[in-house]
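Q: Could you write out the predicted structure for this multi-component system? I'm mainly interested in how the pieces pack against one another.
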Amino acid sequence: MSKHQTDIGNLAAVGRRGFLQASGGLVIAFSLFGAQEATAATPAPGAAARSSMTPPPAGKLYAWLAVHPDNTVTLFTGKVETGTGVQTALAQFAAEELDFPIERLNVVMGTTSETVDQGPSYGSRTVRYAGPQIRHAAAAGRKALLDLAGAHFGVSANQLAIKDGTVSVIGAPDQSVTYGTLVNGKRLNMEIGASGERFDMKVAPAVHTKDPSTYTVVGKSVPRKDIPGKMTGQFTYIQDVRVPNMLHGRVVRPYGVGSTLLSVDETGLRDIPGFVQVVRRDNFLGVVADTEWGAIQAAAKLGSTLNPSGPDAAQAKWSSWDGLPPMDQIWETVRKAAAGSNAAAANVGSVDMALDFAARTLKATYKTPFQMHGSIGPSCAVADVEGDRATFWSCTQMPHETLRDMAKMLRMPPEKMELRWFEGAGGYGRNGFDHVVADAAVMSQAVGRPVRVQWMRWDEHGWEPKGPPIVQDLLGALDSNGHVAAWRHHMWIPTTSDTHLIAAALIGEPDVTGQTGVGHPAVTYKYNFPNADVAAHGEGRVGLLTAWLRSPAQFETTFAMESFIDELANAAGQDPLAFRLAHVSDPRGIGVLRAAAQSYGWESRPAGGKRAEANGKPAQGRGVAWVNRDDVCVATIVDVTVDPASGEIKVGRVVVAHDCGLVVNPDGLRNQVEGNVVQSLSRTLHEEVAFDHAHVTSRDWQGYPILRFSEMPDRIDVVMVNNTPKYPPYGAGEPSTNPTAAAVGNAVFDAIGVRLRQTPFRPDRVKAAMS
Amino acid sequence: MPQNITLTINGTDQTVAVEPDSMLLYALRDNLGLHGPKFGCGLAECGACTVVLDGNAIRSCSTPVSAVGSAKITTLEGLGTIDKPHPLQKAFIEEQAAQCGYCINGMIMAASALLAQNAHPSRDDIKQALDGNLCRCGTHMRIVRAIERAAGQGA
């Protein structure tokens, strides 16, 4: 499975490169048939003796592909699976260009010593950017194998044909050889060329790739490679990784976000079976034990519990700290921060001048709260730090970057460190997965043994980086014909990219790695209003640590933009769909709006807008919204039933028209879109992180409810638009998250005549809006 | 202090050295190396740790080992394998009913307890049986479809 192979470049190059240089190390591989293998336990013989753990050179074919004697192939990629199915999608690209059966193609993801850094797996960018890199590497692989076969048979390449990983001489069917036999266990040492880095890397730029109109694997609903193992308990998640001599660790976080550690009373800890020691370094506090249960018990004594009652209530005493702003005034705090940048997304004509001539002007403010990623599996990692060498086991979205962060934090040479990547529970952005690596590193370094750290639920809810609260002011003016004459959309957005590590701050080195980005206008303005002013006041950290959460800030800006469009349509007395179509020129935007309307059976009429009686009967409504996110267009139509008596919103049918260009795996796309719809419904209806002046008080699923089965939509119809080889695949991880909140809010207005301008749309908010 | 306790797991008696008041989940995962039941919350709120105990779906993260006694425990591994999947597992694979898949252990185990008691559940029965199980990826539509498929095939 690992690259225990000699080199093979051209035939003369055999043996030129060192045999062991890239061998050893451990990989996780997935296969459609046969058990999932994940040898996490012991480093391979010789691995520790390797002089360097640096990634393979991107310009070498072996950095991407290995062909094994049993005629299986391994694809190596620095991208990782996060539950969205990209592993299978990337395998489809490789199988396609390699003319190799996808069932016999395994994928190694993320492990830093085995894969090229292709950039983090975020931003709906994996298929879009890594897809072409892998496509070119695999095409180069096919050419190399063809050259080998030519030499093998003594014929030229144009006399050869390839089918399913077997090369035959045309017209002589008895003359055939498999890729596995051709390569004969050697390493693919051919130079294929690579330039640039990460997302922008170009691999084998000169190689001829297939015409997408001839694809037979890309574009098919190939079953996901990871699913059978996951359904049977045979899959190894990061939480399942165990290494020899390992201790179990738990963190004990400060009571207040900025509390300092005053004292630790270790009374009774030694009575806990399996307890080993407390790890204390400045404000970092943790415990390690031989057993998980022992670590949990010890951490609880020090204060790691669901409901801690005060900074000095447990055996670890923290300073009082109450630096968080009031929860109900968080948006005023965000506005006041206003020290960041001002960035324009659109500046057309003059809004102020147009207002002088407007027939009607509307204003509204939209508010959205802190929300969390809420992974079902809490953050978990194993670290083995010893001397100037370290190994990490992690499910991070960004293995190569996380390793560099660890090198900085531990002040160790990165070439002596390795991160072995294993999949975790879905993360949906930068949650605690990177932070827990740092926790494990600090603890392992302190105790000199491998330490596995798994956050408790309250660590996850309380300390994972959140999506930021956002406030948005909108102003729109209609002319006497009911057209939009002016549009102003100003947003105040704290950072969605604060990459400072929690553990680094706690050990007293907050700036050893990471940076605090500034919120930016996370909106794609695609209306053609004659006067428009769209801008973001970008802030740094406001209150809690924040980082990217699925479709960072664009879920929120789309909510405001697409709700306010409906407000204008209503003021103009027009059908909300027709009103949008009258103000959009983007053909792909028009395409998804029309496709959604057709699939739904949209009949033109203005939104109902009739105010329901407070205890009236449940009322039905429909709502539409759309988005363009990074060249992907999505229109969503939602049916809701609102019960005026309870304030409850029930979602019935959802139609999503989705244009991400060529779809690599149609069933995978449907799965992803369904997931985005349900998750964003949850964020729309339920989710708001609560906090007091000291810390997050949403510390479990009671305190942070998410959507349950009883609330799932009746059906979700996905319509694929422009799914054709004429267009490249743009990436579908996030975009269909965006329209949901506006579509639901617009449907609620249609049903009961109440405009909801603040998520989540909890029943109490609906009732309050009605009164 | 740890004691030797014998548990009947997936049809086999297994002895583990654990503290009697420690939770069953850790015995299954750490002592017996099972990957099916997962730690999700430790608070019986999400269902990732679900196992079937004498026919009932229970939360192993909040069930002390001492409370198990001679009850028969079935985990995800006890249902089937990739090569010989249980009809529920087969239906989940056929429906591609997973994204990250971390919660799916709980979904399949809760569904297996449901189908044992009600071979032909309605969609509402299924939703009700799973209402205490959380999925964050939003795979609800497929999970319900998979259980309906398995029920239709007499799982």
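A: Regarding packing and overall arrangement: Strands of chain B lie at 3-9, 12-18, 50-53, 56-59, 72-74.
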